[in-house]
């Protein structure tokens, strides 16, 4: 039995939106609780009665009720458009990330990796729009820091992804997972590290949060945002975590491949791995202080880029040898 | 950047940091959820001042020593006829003993200075009011606070002996 095309499309779109709205909330709530317990606190305990599970929903309701303020000097249209631009790239990225084997992906694409890397890079435009349009020195400083950071870290991100694409011989994300073998964990370990760290910087998560740096820049490029638009930026941050975690999973951790029942439980393995990587993202945030702007650039150009290039050479050598 | 430390490999501190946060996460948080769980306060907590009226002789020391003059005392003298005594005795009777907790700075000098042990610290702290005037606790209310006064904690075995003990020992030695 085959479904009519429109129904299939509707289901796939609904699935993407569900993932887009639910996973970031789960990650956000986990961050609340994990961060709290790592700091010897309890975190939210009252919203929803059971261990504050509804805290983010309550936050969302609060944000919706707030006044939508646009600064008088702001470039209003750009200012209002920026949150949407921040969200869309991640939404597009989720479309091509495979959840399980076979057809369990919203839109299988032969050059999925290429598309994902391209759209994730669009995020910088939203940051620049937000920072510039706010007409505020803090937002501008934050936006320029973000621009410098994202341009720098795009390179190791792409190089690390190129290594695994070269190893798999395909740009299709599903194809990469199918080609993946457990020993790649060792072979591609440097690339995994580079990709994860560059991904963290790409979504501006601590310790790479110099563009936001609340102790220096008020709240960086988000300073002037309130209410729903601010909430959208926050949502973008958490979708960013999900996307980077999912990409790390798919490219380096074998996606839906688990110890058993890959065909039936593939989606579960993927989600578990995404959850584990997201946990590491939160863990790193709690443990490490923010990098200074110069340290940030040093780390990228003198640390990640050489490692990524060396990994490329290694990948090519192994590929030629076998 | 990761700089090599004195003994160890580069990045050792980063790994140590991850270990510390992980250890904290899996150990129990010490938080007490206050409105649901009453805090366990030590016996010497300065929450509210209780008045044991029967011990008060209206000597006025507390009111005079109070740095911000938040203790109000009124009294009158009563003549007590003791049968068989040569003349009638006079006795101070307390009419009013108020402490204004909107002024009180919880220094505890009144309690220190009271020669007759009529004032005590109690750990109760939940007496916020909507109207500042209600923070003036009269002697009835101050007497109620006595219910919360805990038994004094046992003497620290390694601490200096109490004043009473040392003076007693001195007097015993002098004799």
TrEMBL record, chain A:
It catalyses: a quinone + NADH + 5 H(+)(in) = a quinol + NAD(+) + 4 H(+)(out). InterPro entries: NADH_UbQ_OxRdtase_su1/FPO. It comes from the Bacteria. GO terms for molecular function: NADH dehydrogenase activity; oxidoreductase activity, acting on NAD(P)H, quinone or similar compound as acceptor; quinone binding. GO terms for cellular component: plasma membrane. The keyword NAD applies. Its EC number is 7.1.1.-. Keywords: Cell membrane, Membrane, NAD, Quinone, Translocase, Transmembrane, Transmembrane helix, Ubiquinone. HAMAP family: NDH1_NuoH (MF_01350). Belongs to the complex I subunit 1 family. NDH-1 shuttles electrons from NADH, via FMN and iron-sulfur (Fe-S) centers, to quinones in the respiratory chain. The immediate electron acceptor for the enzyme in this species is believed to be ubiquinone. Couples the redox reaction to proton translocation (for every two electrons transferred, four hydrogen ions are translocated across the cytoplasmic membrane), and thus conserves the redox energy in a proton gradient. This subunit may bind ubiquinone. This is NADH-quinone oxidoreductase subunit H. It comes from Phytomonospora endophytica. The lineage of its organism: Bacteria, Bacillati, Actinomycetota, Actinomycetes, Micromonosporales.
From TrEMBL, chain B:
Residues 47-76, 95-124 form the 4Fe-4S ferredoxin-type domain. Its EC number is 7.1.1.-. It is found in: Cell membrane. One of its GO terms (cellular component) is plasma membrane. Residues 145-175 are annotated as: Disordered. Gene3D superfamilies: 3.30.70.3270. The keyword Cytoplasm does not apply. PROSITE patterns: 4FE4S_FER_1, 4FE4S_FER_2. [4Fe-4S] cluster 2 binds at residues 66, 104, 107, 110. It is a peripheral membrane protein. Residues 157-168 have a biased composition (Basic and acidic residues). Pfam families: Fer4_7 (PF12838). [4Fe-4S] cluster 1 binds at residues 56, 59, 62, 114. Transmembrane segments: none annotated. Binds 2 [4Fe-4S] clusters per subunit. Keywords: 4Fe-4S, Cell membrane, Iron, Iron-sulfur, Membrane, Metal-binding, NAD, Quinone, Repeat, Translocase, Ubiquinone. It catalyses: a quinone + NADH + 5 H(+)(in) = a quinol + NAD(+) + 4 H(+)(out). Belongs to the complex I 23 kDa subunit family. NDH-1 is composed of 14 different subunits. Subunits NuoA, H, J, K, L, M, N constitute the membrane sector of the complex. NDH-1 shuttles electrons from NADH, via FMN and iron-sulfur (Fe-S) centers, to quinones in the respiratory chain. The immediate electron acceptor for the enzyme in this species is believed to be ubiquinone. Couples the redox reaction to proton translocation (for every two electrons transferred, four hydrogen ions are translocated across the cytoplasmic membrane), and thus conserves the redox energy in a proton gradient. This is NADH-quinone oxidoreductase subunit I. It comes from Phytomonospora endophytica. The gene is nuoI.
């Amino acid at each position: 039995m085959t479904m009519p095309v429109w129904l299939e499309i509707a289901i796939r779109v609904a699935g993407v939106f569900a993932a887009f709205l639910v996973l970031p909330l789960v990650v956000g709530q986990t961050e609340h609780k994990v961060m709290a317990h790592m700091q010897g606190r309890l975190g939210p305990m009252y919203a929803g009665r059971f261990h504050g599970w509804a805290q983010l929903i309550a936050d969302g309701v609060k944000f919706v009720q707030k006044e939508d303020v646009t600064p008088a000097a702001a470039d209003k249209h750009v200012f209002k458009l920026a949150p949407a631009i921040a969200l869309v790239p991640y939404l597009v990225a989720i479309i091509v990330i495979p959840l399980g084997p076979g057809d369990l992906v919203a839109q299988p694409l032969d050059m999925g990796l290429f598309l994902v890397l391209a759209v994730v890079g669009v995020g910088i435009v939203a940051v620049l729009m937000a920072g510039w349009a706010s007409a505020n020195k803090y937002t501008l400083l934050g936006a320029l820091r973000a621009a410098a950071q994202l341009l720098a870290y795009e390179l190791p991100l792409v190089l690390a992804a190129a290594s695994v694409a070269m190893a798999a011989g395909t740009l299709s994300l599903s194809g990469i997972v199918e080609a993946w073998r457990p020993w790649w964990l060792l072979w591609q370990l440097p690339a995994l590290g580079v990709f994860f760290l560059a991904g963290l910087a790409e979504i501006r998560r601590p310790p790479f949060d110099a563009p936001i740096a609340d102790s220096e820049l008020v709240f960086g490029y988000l300073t002037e945002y309130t209410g729903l638009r601010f909430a959208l930026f926050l949502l973008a941050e958490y979708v960013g975590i999900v996307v980077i975690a999912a990409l790390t999973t798919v490219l380096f951790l074998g996606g839906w491949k688990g110890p058993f029942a890959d065909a039936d439980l593939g989606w579960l393995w993927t989600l578990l791995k995404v959850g584990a990587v997201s946990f590491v993202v939160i863990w790193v945030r709690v443990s490490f202080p923010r990098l200074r702007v110069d340290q940030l650039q040093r780390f990228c150009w003198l640390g990640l880029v050489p490692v990524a290039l060396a990994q490329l050479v290694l990948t090519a050598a192994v590929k030629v040898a076998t | 950047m990761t700089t090599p430390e004195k003994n160890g490999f580069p990045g050792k501190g980063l790994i140590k940091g991850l270990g510390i946060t992980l250890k904290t996460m899996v150990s129990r948080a010490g938080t007490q959820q206050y409105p649901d769980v009453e805090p366990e306060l030590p016996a010497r907590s300065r929450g509210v001042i209780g008045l044991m009226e029967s011990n008060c002789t209206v000597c006025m020391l507390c009111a005079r020593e109070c740095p911000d003059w938040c203790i109000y005392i009124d009294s009158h003298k009563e003549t007590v006829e003791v049968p068989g005594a040569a003349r009638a005795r006079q006795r101070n009777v307390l009419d009013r003993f108020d402490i204004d907790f909107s002024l009180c700075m919880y220094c505890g000098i009144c309690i220190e200075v009271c020669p007759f042990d009529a004032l005590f610290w109690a750990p109760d702290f939940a007496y916020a009011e909507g109207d500042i005037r209600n923070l003036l606790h009269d002697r009835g209310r101050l007497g109620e606070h006595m219910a919360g006064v805990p038994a004094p904690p046992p003497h620290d075995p390694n601490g200096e002996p109490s004043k009473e003990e040392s003076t007693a020992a001195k007097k015993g030695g002098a004799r």
